[in-house]
TrEMBL record:
This is Ubiquinone biosynthesis accessory factor UbiK. Pfam families: BMFP. PANTHER family: UBIQUINONE BIOSYNTHESIS ACCESSORY FACTOR UBIK. Keywords: Coiled coil, Cytoplasm, Ubiquinone biosynthesis. Pathway: Cofactor biosynthesis; ubiquinone biosynthesis. It is found in: Cytoplasm. HAMAP family: UbiK. Belongs to the UbiK family. Required for efficient ubiquinone (coenzyme Q) biosynthesis. UbiK is probably an accessory factor of Ubi enzymes and facilitates ubiquinone biosynthesis by acting as an assembly factor, a targeting factor, or both. Residues 52-79 form a coiled coil.
């Protein structure tokens, strides 16, 4: 999930862009924007940074294992071809 501080910062930036004449409504608007952002972002398919890092490590290990297996297969094929000829 996205850091709530980031959502609050985004809502504040949007609220600060409101013209001065409607500044008195800014707090109400900021709250509604914050709530809307939280609702919409929660609907998106995000993963946490920790989960992303874990999956990156799993992928790296899997890739290394695949390369090792490919090398073993290549060696077995080469050995078999050497015996057949």
């Amino acid at each position: 999930m996205i850091d709530p501080k980031k959502i609050e910062e985004m809502a504040r930036q949007i609220g600060n862009s409101i013209p001065p004449k409607v500044r008195e409504m800014a707090d109400d608007i900021e709250g509604k924007i914050k709530q809307t952002l939280q609702n919409k972002l929660s609907q998106l398919d995000f993963v946490s940074r920790e989960e992303f890092d874990v999956q990156t490590q799993v992928l790296a290990r899997t890739r290394a294992k695949l390369e090792q297996l490919e090398q073993q297969v290549a060696e077995l094929v080469a050995a078999k071809q050497g015996k057949v000829e």
